[in-house]
Specification:
Length: 548
C-alpha cells in the first residue's frame, strides 16, 4: 500500500521559504572591523532572490556550479540559500587548501562563477588564471568598491560588484521545483593523499542533516537561539549550522574573518551567541584568552559549545566548564557525512565522573546514521565497546561515492569506510582511537596515539602534543611523543612520562620524546603526522629517552 501523504520534496528552497515567511524576524549579524552589521531573514530572502536573478543574467542555468570564496558572513548565507534554490550547485571553495588543490577542485567541479569576499580578492587573484572554467567573479562585502578589481580581470573573466548586481535585480524570483535527490552543494575533502575528493550533497540530505543538527541532542535550536558558526562555511558546511539555523528560525551571528581569540571574544560579548561551534584549537585559544581576562564572561548567554573535527580532550572540556561555566559537547563527522553523525552526550542516568567516559568519546549515533566496526578483512566485529577496527557508516546524509572519481577502496557493500579506527558499543557510542594511518602497532598490540595525546594535553605545562609511531626493531613500532610546552614552561620527559603513567598502561608509554615549537598542520588545520614522521626519518628531531 502506498501512503496517502503528499509528495513534498525536502529542498533548500523549502528552508529558504520557511526562513522568509515564518522567521522573517530572525537576523544574520556579521562582524566588521570595528562593529557589526545586520539584516533580517526577510531581507536575506529578498537578497537571495536578487542574487538568483543576477546569476541567471550571467548565464547560470541548470546544475552549473557557483563557487564561493568567502568567510562566514551574510553574503555567504545568501549564496548558500540562492544557488541551490535556483537549481544550480553551490561549491564552497576551501580557501585554506593549498593553491594546487584549489586549482584542481575549481576545474574538477567546473565552476562558472565565483563569489569572493573583498578581503579575499588578493588570494583569489593569484589562483584565478589557473581556474579554466570561471567566467564571472562577483566581489562581495562592505569594502568591495575599494578592492583591486583589475587583479581579477584575467583571461576574459568579467568582474562585478555583488551589491551593484543585486541592486539592479528583481526582488522576487520564481524559484523552480527542484528534485530533492538532485545536487544542492558540493565540498571537497582536503585529500591528505592524492587529489581532493568531491562530495555532492542532495537537497534531501542537506534538509535531513539540518534537522539532525537542530535536534535537542545536537544543537536543540529554536528561534530564541543565536548561533555562532566559527567553523567555516567553506569547510564541511559549517557543520550544517547555517541551514539548521534558518530552518529553526535561530539568528546567525557570523565572525567573518576575525577568528582569533581576542576579536572572537569581543564579538561574542557584542553579539551574545547562545550556541557556537569550532574545532578544539579555537576553543583552546579562547580558553587561554578567558583565563587571562577574568572580567570576560560568556556563560550568561552561551549555553552550548559544540566541538569536533579532531578529538576533543576531556581536559579542555573540564577547563571550560570549571573555570568559565561553559558546556562543551563533542561531535564526530566528516565531509563525507555532511558532517555531523554522532554527538557525545552521556546516556540517561550517567552523571558525575561517569560522564567523562562518554563525553571524551566521539558520541552516540544520530537517527539516520548507522555504523559498524570491521576487522582487517572487512569482517564485522562485535558492538561491545572493546573490539577495535575501522569504523564504517551509512545513512541519509552519508555519501555513497565521490564526484567523477571512482574510489572503490573507500566503500564496502554500501558502507563508507571512514578511515577512523575505534570501538562501537551496544548503545551506539563510538570511541575513536586513531586514524587508520596513524595507529601505532607495537608488538602485535595497537597503541592509540589519540589517547596518549589527550592524556599528555591534560598536563598543565603542555600546550599541544602529537604522538606518532616510529620504527622499532623489536616491537615493529614504538610511540614518539612530540610536545609543545606552554610559554615559559620547562619540564623533562621523565616528568611527563610519570604523569602519563597515572592514566596509561606502562607498555604504551612513549620511550622517545622531543620538544617542538608547534605541531605541523594540514591545510585544514589538523595535526599532520606525516610531516613529523618525515622529520624523524630525516634526523631533524632531537630525541630524548623517557628517563631523561
Ligand atoms: P578533511 O577534509 O580533513 O577530510 P573532515 O572535516 O572531513 O576534513 O575530517 C574528518 C575527520 O576528522 C574524521 O574522519 C576524523 O578522523 C576527524 N574527526 C572529526 N571529528 C572528530 C572527533 N570528534 N574526534 C576525533 N576525530 C574527529
Amino acid at each position: 500500500m502506498r501512503s496517502t501523504m503528499q509528495e513534498f520534496p525536502l529542498t533548500i528552497g523549502v528552508i529558504l521559504r520557511h526562513g522568509a515567511e515564518v522567521h522573517g524576524d530572525g537576523e544574520v549579524v556579521t562582524a566588521t572591523a570595528d562593529s557589526l552589521r545586520s539584516e533580517s531573514y526577510a531581507q536575506v530572502a529578498v537578497r537571495a532572490a536578487r542574487l538568483a536573478h543576477a546569476l541567471r543574467s550571467l548565464g547560470i542555468t541548470g546544475d552549473q556550479r557557483v563557487g564561493t570564496f568567502q568567510w562566514n558572513n551574510a553574503e555567504h548565507l545568501e549564496a548558500y540559500l540562492a544557488v541551490p534554490s535556483m537549481g544550480a550547485v553551490l561549491h564552497t571553495l576551501n580557501i585554506r587548501l593549498f593553491p594546487e588543490q584549489l586549482t584542481y577542485i575549481a576545474n574538477h567541479a567546473e565552476d562558472r562563477v565565483v563569489v569572493v569576499d573583498d578581503s579575499l580578492v588578493p588570494l583569489l587573484a593569484r589562483l584565478l588564471p589557473t581556474f579554466e572554467t570561471v567566467q564571472h567573479v562577483l566581489v562581495a562585502g562592505p569594502e568591495a568598491g575599494s578592492a583591486d578589481l583589475d587583479s581579477l580581470r584575467t583571461g576574459g573573466v568579467e568582474v562585478h560588484l555583488y551589491d551593484e548586481l543585486l541592486d539592479a535585480a528583481d526582488a522576487t524570483f520564481a524559484w523552480p521545483d527542484v528534485d530533492e535527490l538532485d545536487a544542492a552543494a558540493m565540498c571537497y575533502t582536503s585529500g591528505t593523499t592524492g587529489n581532493p575528493k568531491g562530495v555532492v550533497y542532495s537537497h534531501r540530505s542537506a534538509y535531513l542533516h539540518s534537522m539532525a543538527v537542530s535536534l535537542g541532542v545536537t544543537g536543540g535550536l529554536t528561534w530564541t537561539d543565536r548561533v555562532l558558526p566559527i567553523v567555516p562555511m567553506f569547510h564541511a558546511n559549517a557543520w550544517g549550522l547555517a541551514y539548521a539555523s534558518v530552518m529553526s528560525g535561530a539568528s546567525l551571528v557570523m565572525p567573518d574573518r576575525w577568528l582569533q581569540a581576542e576579536p572572537l571574544c569581543r564579538f561574542m560579548r557584542q553579539a551574545r551567541p547562545t550556541v557556537s561551534g569550532a574545532v578544539p584549537t579555537v576553543w583552546n585559544d579562547v580558553l587561554s584568552y578567558l583565563d587571562q581576562h577574568e572580567d570576560l564572561e560568556l556563560a550568561s548567554h552561551l549555553r552550548l559549545v559544540l566541538c569536533g573535527g579532531s578529538a576533543v580532550p576531556v581536559s579542555l572540556q573540564q577547563a571550560l566548564s570549571e573555570r568559565h561555566g561553559l558546556h562543551m559537547v563533542q561531535a564526530w563527522g566528516m565531509t563525507e557525512t555532511s558532517p555531523v553523525a554522532s554527538v557525545a552526550r552521556p546516556p540517561a542516568g550517567v552523571e558525575g565522573d561517569g560522564e567523562w567516559h562518554y563525553r571524551g568519546g566521539q558520541g552516540r549515533l544520530l537517527p539516520g546514521i548507522e555504523a559498524r566496526i570491521v576487522g582487517d578483512a572487512g569482517d564485522p566485529l562485535p558492538r561491545d565497546g572493546e573490539a577495535v577496527g575501522e569504523l564504517e557508516v551509512r545513512g541519509a546524509w552519508v555519501t555513497g561515492a565521490y564526484y567523477k572519481d571512482d574510489d572503490p577502496e573507500k566503500f564496502r557493500d554500501g558502507w563508507l569506510r571512514t578511515g577512523d579506527v575505534g570501538t562501537l558499543d551496544g548503545l551506539g557510542y563510538i570511541t575513536l582511537t586513531d586514524r587508520a594511518k596513524d595507529v601505532i602497532k607495537s608488538g602485535g598490540e595497537w597503541i592509540s596515539s589519540v589517547e596518549l595525546e589527550n592524556a599528555l594535553m591534560a598536563h598543565p605545562d603542555v600546550q599541544e602534543a602529537a604522538v606518532v609511531g616510529i620504527p622499532d626493531e623489536k616491537w615493529q613500532e614504538r610511540p614518539l611523543a612530540t610536545v609543545v610546552l606552554r610559554e615559559g614552561a620547562t619540564v623533562r620527559p621523565a616528568e611527563l612520562r610519570d604523569f602519563l603513567a597515572r592514566s596509561v598502561a606502562r607498555w604504551q608509554l612513549p620511550d622517545a620524546w622531543t620538544f617542538i615549537e608547534a605541531v605541523p598542520r594540514t591545510s585544514v588545520g589538523k595535526f599532520d603526522k606525516k610531516v613529523i614522521r618525515r622529520w624523524y626519518a630525516d634526523g631533524e628531531l632531537e630525541v630524548a629517552g623517557g628517563s631523561d
